[in-house]
Amino acid sequence: MSLLKVEHLSKSFGGVHAVEDLSFEIDEGIVYSVIGPNGAGKTTLFNLISGVYTPTSGDIYLDDQVTKGLAPHQLAKNGLSRTFQNLQICMNMSAIENVMVGRHLRLDSGLLKAMFRWPSITRGDKACRDKAAELMEFSGVGKYIDVEADSMPYGALKRLEIARALAAEPRILFLDEPAAGLNGTETAEIDSLIQKVAESGVTVVLVEHDMKLVMNISDRLLVLDYGKKLAEGTPEQIRRNPDVIAAYLGAA
């Protein structure tokens, strides 16, 4: 069953066609990777699906509901969460507070209740902290629960960002280059975490340049070239596709 469907999606910036007439579907419960050379339109595609950009034309469906024009917070309520290519961590907060921020849509936000600290608010805050701690353990950063974010190593911050995205209880999670800037050990930790997320039932959509990681964890791949679909298929089909080899890996 398709969880996400993109039909004839296009985005132009002046005369530049960043994404052009792109169509594909993502089934529920899989790891789906988007690859392509720099400037192929991968991050633009993520920004279109997550509501950061408005499409020039085309449609996007999440669980058969049109999402074009919805703001990012509305999409988050509908089960779509994401991380960004550059870290978006609040360095003036603790690690667990960063994850708790990700649960704000799931909390009781009544003004009067908060002002007078009703028991339900206190219970909600404790439950939020407990869930954040659970997600940090799940993401392999449990030892940083009581640590300030600005004292954490870069690789741990990448996993903390995923924990925060999971705090919104998404059905589909978009990860924009989660292994960028990581060493081999940290990349292996991200690889393991993505597989755990997928096994938990969350559909994962990934943009990543590390081909070893992509080929290891993906069920299907979409290859972009100058904003257009070059190929789509299983890792083995993509690995053997001559057009992909020429455009992405390079050919003699």
What does this molecule look like?
With 252 residues, this protein is α/β, with parallel strands linked by helices. It folds into two domains: 1-79 and 171-178 and 202-252, Rossmann fold (3-Layer(aba) Sandwich), CATH 3.40.50.300; 85-169, P-loop containing nucleotide triphosphate hydrolases (Rossmann fold, 3-Layer(aba) Sandwich). The protein has helices at 42-49, 72-77, 95-101, 111-115, 119-138, 154-166, 184-199, 211-217, 235-240, 242-249, and strands spanning 2-13, 16-27, 31-35, 57-62, 65-66, 80-82, 172-176, 203-207, 220-225, 228-233. It has a six-stranded mixed beta sheet, with helices on both faces. A four-stranded antiparallel beta sheet has the order 2-1-4-5, with helices on one face. A hairpin with a 2-residue loop joins strand 4 and strand 5 (65-66). The radius of gyration is 19 Å and the shape is globular.
Short description:
The chain is of the alpha/beta class. Helix content is 38%, strand content 25%.
